[in-house]
């Protein structure tokens, strides 16, 4: 796991009261794991850009608040009915759109916006000539 942010960085960016001292190390570790999962392209690990540090701080705050890895448990109830001749069948189920950015906390959305220049599209590839 790469280290993009430290507790000292988050304390500097958000102030020391962003969470209780007992949660800080774990929250920063979770933020670094989250950032590492993106395989950020072009980030100089010897001089982490301020935007990446800010994003890491936002993610650490979300982790401390318990929303960084929170599972979405609400959605919409949907029902489908199919009729073929005299036979009718219906199915009722809950649908959750977990891919929607609306399903993510505000701090996570802000962090992703900050990271946009370093995020690679999963559909893109490099072409060398």
What is this entry, summarized?
The protein has helices at 7-14, 21-36, 50-65, 106-115; strands at 76-84, 87-95. It is an alpha+beta fold. A hairpin with a 2-residue loop joins strand 1 (76-84) and strand 2 (87-95).
Question: Could you please describe the fold and organization of this structure?
Answer:
- This is Protein singed.
- The chain is of the alpha+beta class and 129 residues long.
- The chain has one domain.
- It is 39% helix and 14% strand.
- It contains 4 helices and 2 strands; from the N terminus they run αααββα.
- Strands 1-2 form a two-stranded antiparallel sheet.
- The two termini are 32 Å apart.
- 22% of the residues are buried.
- The mean pLDDT is 84.
* SSE class: alpha+beta
Strand order of the largest sheet: 1-2
| Multimer state | single chain
Morphology call: flat
Helix content: 25-40%
Number of strands: 2
Protein name: Protein singed
């Amino acid at each position: 796991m790469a280290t993009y942010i430290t507790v000292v960085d988050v304390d500097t960016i958000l102030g020391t009261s962003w969470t209780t001292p007992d949660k800080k190390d774990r929250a920063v570790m979770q933020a670094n794991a989250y950032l590492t999962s993106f395989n950020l392209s072009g980030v100089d690990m010897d001089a982490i850009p301020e935007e990446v540090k800010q994003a890491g701080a936002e993610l650490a705050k979300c982790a401390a608040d318990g929303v960084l890895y929170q599972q979405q448990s609400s959605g919409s109830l949907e029902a489908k009915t199919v009729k073929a001749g005299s036979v009718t069948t219906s199915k009722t189920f809950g649908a959750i759109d977990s891919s929607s950015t609306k399903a993510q906390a505000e701090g996570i959305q802000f962090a992703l916006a900050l990271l946009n220049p370093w995020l690679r599209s999963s559909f893109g590839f490099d072409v060398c000539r």
